[in-house]
Amino acid sequence: MMNDELDISQVSQLSGLAPSTLRYYEEKGLIKPIGRKGLKRIYHSKSVMTRLALISMGQQAKFSLDEIGKMLNHKDGLNIERASLMTKADEIEKTITSLTVLKDGILHIANCPEENHLLCPNFQKIMETSLKMNRKKT
User: Fold this and answer.
1) Is pLDDT larger for residue 1 or for residue 73?
2) Of 3, 11, 7, nearest to 39 (Cα)?
């Protein structure tokens, strides 16, 4: 086997992904083997590792595999729409804000000087905020 080729077990080891995940990605059209050696799939090393890195980045940004596939398999090659990235960035910012509010509320509750949290005005605000955030989700 040449240096620029990896079998599925080597790709699995280098990427940290199970062979079953790699086969699933292949089934979804996200990666493509260049052939087989015996029963093992063979991949072009640079190409498959680049695609797996892009898939990982896309998943971390909460893109679906179908959305990632559209970006990777565009007729003109890689096509990452900037507008969809901006939308994802906005979603992530909202999540960060929501989690920060939650963290701050939990820290206040943990350190609240009131023996009965229900008597604490800050705890009352935290509960009110929690309800408002719940209403926004529905």
Assistant:
1) 73
2) 7
